User: What shape does this take?
Amino acid sequence: MPRRNLPLFLGLCLASPAARGTDFSPLLHDMVPVPEGADLRPGGRPMRHPGAGRLVFLNGGGGVYTSGWPNDSVTNRSSVIAGDSATLPVWSYDEASWETVLSCVQDLFADFDVHVTDEDPGDVPHVECAVGGSPRDIGWPDTVGGVAPAGCGIIEEAIVFVFSNVYSGNLDSICWTAGQEIGHAYGLDHENYCDDVMSYDHTCPDKGFTDRDANCGEFASRPCRCGGETQNSYQILLDRLGPHPPNAAPFVSIVTPGDGSVVEAGFQIDVEASDDLGVDFVRLRLAGEFVENDGLEPWHFVAPDDLPAGALLVEVEAMDYDGASATDSVTVTVITTDDCGGDPLCADAAPEADAGPPLRRKTYGCGCRTGGAGGSGAMLAALAFLYRRRK
Ligand SMILES: [Zn+2]
Assistant: This one.
């Protein structure tokens, strides 16, 4: 196999700070012989996610990877697995822990033009950070917490691995290891500076990509692999990835019920929402009180069936993956069939009160009382809403 003078390095991370002091230098300084041009991108695919920056796919769903060059996150070909193929199992901790790690990794890269998602980007070029299992799953010793191909520039379609099972549920360490492995894919070296994500030392309370000229090295300072004595991880990422662009707020609209509708308690709420980065979740509030978040499209809620009769403010808020949000609201009048006092016309109309003006007229025509504290005031308000246009 041909070698070239500027090799790709393996970026390795130790499984735990407790492992320090043991000599792992044969692992840490392993270099992978690579064919000429091996880190060039396979032809044909567009370089960048259209209209946005680079993508990182944080994959907790496991996967089967085959060995080879060049690294290709779309077809799961990796230069860092031992053996012909390897299977990484799915994330072993709970969903809430996964969301914590995802949010933490997103925060690490928040200043740069890169979008971290846990939705598979399919054939859109991306760096994949596979999180799960143990190092032995891809043929590495137990002392390794993560591994990545690493050169002196960006490997656009790298696959990096974080072996989350070795961290015993320490979500900070899992997040920081993910940040470090992704950092290797973007060409960063290790830093001998605890506060930086590129450091092996996990004893600091918090980590980030620090805007500081720090010594390179694992447990002692050494010259940086790509030249110089120091590395500024923040400035390098800013230069290579670009700054994070301003983020537009999502679009959100309540489709049903319409503003001014008359509804029964337990009514349905359908929401449309979209965003260039994707909608993370839609939140429902009734009368100003949080009810629930819906993270799955189509966004659909069912109001509680014990709502009091009367006017009710229905608000939804859509949040995108970058924390930008937008709201929409309608005001409806809640009635209950009990309010009808046995009037058969009213009782018939009430369940379909939201169907349109004829039914509303029928409802009011029956002289149905809205009852409760709102009383006739709510009735008047509901009548007034008949003539309001939805925004
Ligand atoms: Zn590393």
Remarks:
- Helices lie at 25-28, 95-108, 171-185, 233-241, 344-349, 357-365, 375-385.
- Residues 1-9, 15-51, 347-391 have pLDDT under 50 and may be disordered.
- The longest helix spans residues 171-185.
- The CA atoms of residues 246 and 276 lie 12 Å apart.
